[in-house]
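Subject: Protein record for review, amino acid sequence with backbone structure tokens
Category: Structural biology, sequence-to-fold work with a learned token vocabulary.
Format: Residues in single-letter code; tokens as whole numbers, each standing for a residue.
Body of memo: The sequence and its backbone structure tokens, given next.
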Amino acid sequence: MKILGIDWGRRTLGIAISDGKLGLAFPRPSIKNDKKAINSLSEIVSKERVSKIVVGHPLRMSGEDSESTDDAKEFYEKLKNKMKKVEIVLFDERFTTKVVETAMNRENESRKRIREKKDSLSAVIILQNYLDANKK
């Protein structure tokens, strides 16, 4: 059993996948958030034998909906309609992108490298937080 983590973004989807023991999350290449995105995710789900998808739920620091919340929920609903056999959940993603950007800045990563990596690394944080919160 594996879990797929998604950091939803208007242009790209950060992707992470758990190990089979549901202990660790690993980054995967981001994919474009376009008309082919859900089919691309469906292929990943099939190939990796994913049983659950965790989609980052963008909220304000106060816990209220943000500008991106409705769009992310719409994406979540499209996923649910396409992948009926896979459980799909929304999970709070507050701080993830900021944590990644801060960490990469400390490592003196270039702006280009930060842009290339931040979505997938944000997905790793979302998924790892979910895994840690749901350890049995």
The longest strand covers residues 25-32.
